[in-house]
Amino acid sequence: MDVLVRRDIDSNTDYAPLCVRGSRARFLHVFPSLSTSTHKLYPLRVRVVNVVTGDLEWEPIAYIPLVRKQKEPLAEMRGRERRSAILQRVLYLALRTTVTASHIGVLHEQDGNTYVAFPRLMLYMSDQPEEKAVLCLKGGSCQHPCSSCVVNVKEAGAPAALSAGERDAVLTVERQLEGAAHKRYQRESVRRTKLEAMESAHNRVPVVAGMAGMTTAPFLLYKSIGFDALHVR
Ligand SMILES: [Zn+2]
């Protein structure tokens, strides 16, 4: 990730535009051995934009395994939990260096000068289920179905939705942190249910919230994720 970010740095700007794109549309089949079973993976790609030359480049940075439900009690729910946990782990492995660099900076040399660059995540393009998964928000039928505001499901699409409050990145992630801690130690089940219901968010912490600028000023956590129009080709 360092290399990708550094290549992107323009000495005239103080941030490197970084776009991430997950795509389940393009699968990779991996044959782990000579057995007939295969693993399906989908790629997580980063679009590197050179702000000086305008050159664009997509680089695969991670492959996320597809996890199917197994034959077990509560299979649907457990499968969902596993997929959600694996997605956040892969995002962590892929983005941890960038997350650190977004806070402490990364050195970039150009024309004999050394600059300290602070990468920022400007856009995470995905389809809607992935958007919910990346942000650890509930999908499907829930009280607050919108990723960027807290409109109630009963008012979504009605004129009243226009005045719905925006999602508060700090508050929501704080509640997710609390909920994730309770879940880890299997405690406070009533409180956990309540926390999840407040903003229809899972008791899991989204990795991208760790990037500087997401839950720190200018609080872009729910603004830097966007719909991937390429999925509608
Ligand atoms: Zn909304």
Layout of SSEs?
Layout: H1 2-7, E1 17-22, E2 28-30, E3 39-49, E4 56-65, H2 75-104, E5 106-110, E6 113-117, E7 120-126, H3 128-135, H4 169-184, H5 189-199, E8 225-227
Parallel strand pairs: 1-7, 7-8
Antiparallel strand pairs: 1-3, 2-3, 3-4, 5-6
The structure holds zinc ion (ZN).
Zinc ion (ZN) is lined by residues 146, 148-149, 151.
Taken from the alpha-carbon principal axes, the silhouette is globular
- The end-to-end distance, rounded to whole angstroms, is 29 Å
What is the residue-mean pLDDT, rounded to a whole number? Answer: 82
Regions with pLDDT < 50 over 5+ consecutive residues?
1-16, 30-36
Question: How many domains in all?
Answer: 2
Bound molecules: zinc ion
Radius of gyration: 19 Å
Percent strand equals: 15-25%
- Which bin fits the share of residues in helices? 25-40%
How many β-strand stretches?
Answer: 8
Count of alpha and pi helical runs: 5
Q: N-to-C SSE series? A: HEEEEHEEEHHHE
Major sheet characteristics? 6 strands, mixed
Structural class, from secondary structure content? alpha/beta
What does this protein structure show overall?
- The protein is α/β, with parallel strands linked by helices and 233 residues long.
- It has two domains: 1-127, no CATH class; 137-205, no CATH class.
- Helices cover 30% and strands 21% of the residues.
- Zinc ion binds at residues 146, 148-149, 151.
